[in-house]
Queue: 2 jobs
Job 1
Amino acid sequence: MSQNFLNYIGGQWVPARSGRTFWNHDPATGEALGEFPASALEDVDAAVAAAAKAFRGWRLTPAPKRAEIVFRAGEIIRARKEDLARAMTREMGKVLIEARGDVQEGIDMAYLAAGEGRRMYGVTTPSEMPDKWAMSVRAPVGVVGVITPWNFPFAIPSWKLMPALVAGNTAVFKPAGDTPEMAWHFTKILEEAGLPPGVLNLVFGSGAEVGNPMVEHPGIHVISFTGSTDVGLAIAGRGGALGKRISLEMGGKNAIIVMDDADLAHATDAIAWSAFGTTGQRCTACSRVLVHGRVHDELADRVTAKAKQLKLGSGLEPTTDVGPLVNRSQVEKVHAYVEIGAKEGTLAAGGGPARDGALAKGHFYRPTVFRDVPAGARIAVEEIFGPVLAMVKVESLEQAIEINNASRYGLSAAIFTRDVKSAFAAMRDLETGIVYVNHGTTGAETHLPFGGTRGTGNGHREAGHTMLDPFTEWKSIYVDFSGRLQRAQIDNA
Ligand code: NAD
């Protein structure tokens, strides 16, 4: 049964001022799930005004008290984990065990961010002058704009909004059009946990009509964005020209290196999980394997066999390994790449949409493996964001690292080897934000920094001990208790 949802502005649940709406759909069945406000500039204006008003009080609320609300939200999420996971699977298709993991990241982040409320450490340091005190403290930036994608519809808002709120900012949140319901649950839970009106404002709508006005809005001081590299860089250009801080988490083309001394059975399991989990729609998904020439054929055979065994279906079915892609245009994009790939490498598994029987109404695509793919082939270089894996032969670790580092992207990379020298060389030389040894490219934990280099990011990291950085300004404070004029760099030189 479908439901009507509303924006959340200034503590009130309200429709778009224009009255326009859009629908979200179950990608496994095509069923319409809910109707959401199709908002525009006037709704963004109202949300920013509410956030600016709430900032005055929220900024002065003691950080441990702000954090207690986020902690309570974590408790509510934990109590509702199963319902939230099921709603997520219905809305964007990932299989239930992965949807539970996505919600679990929200719980982990709530507890982690709540702890910051009693830390948020500053730095004290001696002054060069007598009778003078020096310190630096974190201050909130003001109103934060949060723009998120659909592939981690609970975890990603948690990484951004929980630290931002604990730090004393207020926020305007625009989720992706394919996953508005998860954003609604997230916001409702924070309301229930006791967040004062206006501290978090939720505005549904498109990138053009809501995201873009947020980026250009003079009342928003920071934009925290996760999504594609092209959109992120365009946002950075427009927002940067207005002097805003723009924190970007963007695309990936993550590689697993498999050396000739690796445990191939273990590597196969990790490759299949990293490549086909969330139907390949993770920013950290493995979409290319850089495999030593001596074991390429054996590994390709193993990965192909594994891909062929994976069962497609609704993510709600316990026997399903791979759910649908999120929407029709993703199917088209993935298939266009597979057609390109057929001219570049050898198709070993999959290669097309799956439409038989119960799959007929969904956006299903067969787990696809290409072997003997040249390192420079488009399917080995460009982000596909679907269940498509390219296996590339390499002759040495150095060559694998060089290919990895030549990528436009730099999010996650992994190496399978039993040789400690190769492992440590890879840890040192792989130029990505995340490196795994004998583990696939997915599975980041919330208490370590998350983000990437080159086209994946612009130097910011989310979560971990860096979680407050995008959302705080450092303020240096000097207190002179000498009772006289003291001139730094002059009187004591
Ligand atoms: P997308 O770039 O199309 O959209 C992301 C968000 O930006 C959505 O909310 C969208 O409505 C909004 N948006 C679109 N155009 C906009 C504009 N002109 N101004 C402001 N906002 C705009 O990405 P997507 O398809 O939702 O997500 C998939 C992409 O996200 C992939 O490239 C994936 O790698 C990336 N991703 C990265 C990470 C990471 O942490 N690095 C995590 C998850 C996903």
Note: The pocket of nicotinamide-adenine-dinucleotide is lined by residues 147-152, 174, 176-177, 206-208, 211-212, 215, 226-228, 231, 235, 249-252, 283, 383, 385, 411, 452, 456 (CB under 6 Å).
Job 2
Amino acid sequence: MKHRIALVTGSNRGIGYATVQELLKKGYRVIMTARKEADGAKSLSELEKYGDVKFHPLDVSDPESIHRIARYIESTIGQLDILINNAGIHYDTWQSATSADLDQVQETLNVNLFGAWRMALAVVPFMQKQKHGRIVNVSSGSGAFAEMGSGTPGYSISKAAMNVLTIKLASDLRKYNILVNSVCPGWVRTEMGGMAAPRSPQKGAETIIWAAELPDHGPTGKFFRDKREIAW
Ligand code: NDP
């Protein structure tokens, strides 16, 4: 596995940071990313002791930024095996569908859905060439129809849409040995989850890493929590 290369979006803090840490401990080479250079540099200096990690700036809401990281991969490594679409924003507990600020909802979709989609489009060509790839979309129970109630309208809709993206990508890419799955990390102690959450970022990263390491012919187009399939 040592030659496998992984990229994690939004990995300067929270679940993304813990995912990079755990992947490094397992011997993967990792591209960690952050919107801000300073945040990336700080995280890089902490993460280097765990393994072979490089930093590249990335804002998933900006197509140019995605173009730049794809060119970086092409020119320096020429390979990408694992994409973790972790970057996410606006758990909008402060609004409801009947009071929603649609500009904010649009911003949420631009990161949580289109950011993940743009990233998939950018890296799938590497994976197709290799005939190997794993894409993990970090979703949420808030996006599961089975668990959905009122509240967090922008966030829930963005994660439900991300789950549809998972199914679509998975069925297009299965023939290339590229497995695409959604993972809910559970309720995790991060800036988004808050300090009352029961799970550590490491625990949140567990099923994400499990989905990144699925064997060939493993499940694809599914939704998991705690390594078990859950309802959409
Ligand atoms: P955090 O808020 O702690 O971290 C979010 C990360 O995403 C940060 O690194 C942030 O960067 C980055 N980010 C935000 N916008 C962009 C962007 N435009 N481009 C690139 N990176 C961006 O959240 P968590 O670690 O808790 O969440 C990680 C994922 O897990 C999210 O997708 C979230 O929806 C999901 N999740 C979290 C749960 C929880 O309980 N915490 C529960 C269920 C799902 P910056 O520092 O620059 O803002």
Note: The beta strands are 5-8, 29-34, 53-57, 82-85, 133-138, 178-183, 223-225, 228-229.
